[in-house]
Design brief:
Among the domains are: 152 residues, 3-Layer(aba) Sandwich (Aminopeptidase), CATH 3.40.630; 76 residues, D-amino Acid Aminotransferase, Chain A, domain 1; 62 residues, ATP-grasp fold, A domain (Dna Ligase, domain 1), CATH 3.30.1490.20; 114 residues, ATP-grasp fold, B domain (D-amino Acid Aminotransferase, Chain A, domain 1, 2-Layer Sandwich), CATH 3.30.470. Helix content is 30%, strand content 29%. It is built from 20 helices and 32 strands. Helix 13 crosses helix 20. The longest helix has 18 residues.
Length: 659
């Protein structure tokens, strides 16, 4: 019997409904709406198997597939009863394997009825192995097993580990590329752009070494198509565009201005040019500067032009084709390239295949991080459970962001440091990111929060903006003392002072004006504790009471003489439905004015009325405190949110299992 396969059309809907009803119990069947969504989906694949009967094509089986980044998931396979036992299922499985291999997937996965041992054995005979048991997967008491098979594309090892992404070096003419790299295949730009197999490879890293990145050049289109195919490109289209924008270049390099001045202080003349080859300086003494610039503008080879008026500044950054390097010895280029491509991050092996890659940004040296070590381990385990390969990264890994699908920031954020740059770049690269850049900017600025909440009529302490050089303010100041003075962009209850009268306020303002032209003056609202309400995706996540530190007016006593430990008050975490409804509603409403991210809202309960103090974009999650009620589920909810955001961005439709 000859079997052919094709993509399902809407005209196949009745057949799909029929084969579902004849193959699965009622509660496991997809209804018409679900099947129709599958057919028209840009993400799912629905196949129909046919054979000829009396010179007429007859539909005999179907398959529904979910292509993820590294895994092709078999959602369902169904064969008409009269064709079972005739090798149709075997042909279908072999065709799926062939298809997955052609598209570059690392593995195929599926779920099967744990009680149907004949079915499990059938999949085992076709090379699948049971990876885990899924209790109550189909319904109460109806367990499933998850099975998978590693493909040759995944370079499966004897121990079951699977290699990371496939690496491609794209050049104009491969015959002129003399360097052999074990971990990467060298292909032409035309082949990458037009070759069907590259359109369908789901996980690849593309090193664009073309002779030009100009708009509408082959090099430009290589990076553009890599972005469309969800491949990791270096340089990516965003970086190529940034090369042409001097204001963006200066914005990105503000944080390394001191390093620029120090590195060039002994240079004579008003112009200087530096070539950066795979992150290395070709001029002695510029190793650190070259590395910092490369991390901001990741491209194989860069020429950076500096100019000096009063101080040195970057005048231009331009990518260079490898063939144009006349001032660099070929042996040095080969050395830098080999070192770069042999880096362990390009050849990682994993004991398990994952749906997506998650980066968690931390600062190992941060004294009071937003999450302690046990909480970070809980985040890692939760991420793995929902399908993430998770890696903890630091500020040194800025250039690696394009390797990931999502970024979760777990170090204290600020608009003036690398955390904002990480968030901004991750967002521009198409990663799902928490905290997103606009949440960092909005939450860190108390002026913005006050104006936003005031316009929405959300109760806040009485607030005034104090500007440097303002005369006569003390004659019209209408906030009763004591008063709280805050830096507009302060965080974590730092840069806040309580003043008792006008004279003390004048003295403290003079000191604070040295770092900011504007200071926030706010009414002091006394309470024994603050409510901290965690909000994620517009839904309350946890409710904790943070009590004031002993003999202090804040939760944290930063003025404590104990240098080894921060003096903090006690805490109490309660189920969300046990917290006052007006507190929860205020928190959720306030967050809706900021975004749809992950927030911690501080609210005082004053005689049964809420008073919003601030919204934090980088809320604390410490083991045994915020997770006291939900436990493991708190971490899972955050990771599921990140997973859902990725799949929403990629247009993954959700199945409707009942009418």
């Amino acid at each position: 019997m000859k079997i052919t396969f094709r993509t399902a059309q809407l005209s196949d809907l009745e057949f799909l409904k029929t084969v579902e009803k004849l193959s699965f119990p009622p509660h496991r069947q997809n209804n018409s709406k679900s099947l129709r969504l599958s057919i028209i989906s840009t993400f799912q694949e629905v196949w129909v198997a046919e054979t000829k009967v009396r010179n007429k094509k007859e539909q005999i089986a179907d398959a529904i597939l979910y292509p993820h980044r590294k895994t092709l998931r078999i959602f369902s396979i169904a064969v008409m009863p009269e064709y079972r036992g005739k090798g149709v299922g075997h042909e279908l499985i072999e065709k799926i394997k062939e298809h997955a291999g052609f598209r570059g997937f690392l593995s195929i996965s599926l779920e099967a009825d744990a009680d149907n041992q004949a079915l499990v054995r059938w999949y085992t005979d076709h090379g699948f192995s049971v990876r885990e048991k899924l209790p109550d997967y189909y319904g109460t008491g109806e367990d499933a097993v998850r099975m998978s098979i590693a493909l040759e594309n995944g370079h499966a090892n004897a121990d079951g580990s699977i290699s990371a992404m496939r690496n491609f070096i794209v050049v104009d003419n491969p015959s002129k590329w003399s360097l052999e790299i074990d971990s990467a295949d060298v292909i032409s730009a035309k082949e990458y752009i037009t070759g069907p197999r590259f359109q369908n490879i789901p996980n690849a890293r593309v090193f664009n070494m073309c002779n030009s990145y100009k708009y509408q050049s082959l090099g430009y289109y290589v990076s553009l198509l890599a972005s469309a195919r969800d491949h990791r490109a270096m340089p990516n289209v965003t970086t190529i565009r940034d090369f042409t924008n001097l204001s963006v270049i200066r914005n990105f390099t503000d944080n390394i201005d001191d390093l620029i001045q120090e590195s060039l202080k002994d240079e004579e003349g008003n112009y200087f040019s530096l070539i950066i080859c795979f992150g290395h300086s070709t001029v002695k003494g510029f190793r650190k500067l070259a590395k910092e610039i490369y991390q901001l503008f990741e491209s194989p080879i860069l020429r950076v032009s500096f100019a000096r008026s009063k101080d040195w500044s970057i005048r231009k950054i331009a990518p260079m084709p490898i063939g144009s390097l006349r001032s660099v010895a070929q042996s040095d280029i080969e050395k830098y390239a080999r070192e770069y491509f042999s880096h362990k991050r390009f050849n990682k092996q994993r004991m398990k295949n994952y749906l997506y890659d998650l980066a968690i940004l931390i600062d190992p040296k941060e004294k009071y991080p937003p999450s302690d070590k046990p909480a970070m381990e809980a985040f890692r385990k939760a991420a793995e459970e929902v399908g993430f390969y998770t890696e903890f990264i630091t500020k040194e890994d800025y250039d690696r962001l394009p390797e990931f699908d999502a970024l979760f920031i777990r170090e204290t954020t600020s608009v003036n440091d690398h955390t904002y740059l990480f968030s901004r770049r991750a967002y521009s690269e198409g990663l799902v990111v928490i905290d997103d850049p606009w949440s960092i900017m909005r939450c860190s600025n108390k002026m913005f929060l006050y104006e936003r909440m005031n316009r929405a009529r959300i109760p806040t302490p009485k607030t005034r903006m104090m500007t440097k050089g303002l005369k006569g303010w003390d004659q019209n100041f209408d906030i009763p003392f004591p008063v709280i003075l805050k830096q507009p962009d302060g965080s974590f209850s730092k840069d806040m002072y309580k003043v008792a009268d006008v004279e003390e306020m004048k003295e403290k303002l003079e000191q604070m004006y040295k770092t900011s032209d504007l200071i926030v003056a706010q009414e002091f609202v006394k309470s024994d504790y603050d409510w901290r309400i965690g909000v994620l995706d517009g839904t309350p996540l946890f409710a904790s009471k943070y009590y004031m530190a002993k003999d202090h007016w804040q939760i944290y006593n930063w003025a404590s003489e104990d240098n080894e430990a921060l003096h903090t008050g006690d805490f109490e975490t309660v189920p969300v439905d046990k917290a006052p409804e007006y507190i929860i509603n205020t928190a959720v409403r306030a967050c809706s004015l900021i975004g749809d991210g992950l927030y911690g809202v501080d609210i005082k309960d004053i005689d049964g009325k809420p008073c919003l103090i601030e919204i934090n974009d980088n809320p604390n999650f410490d083991y045994g405190i915020e997770d006291k009620v939900l436990g493991k589920e708190l971490y899972l909810r955050i990771m599921r949110s990140i997973l859902c955001r990725i799949e929403k961005e990629r247009g993954v439709p959700k199945y409707v299992s009942s009418d």
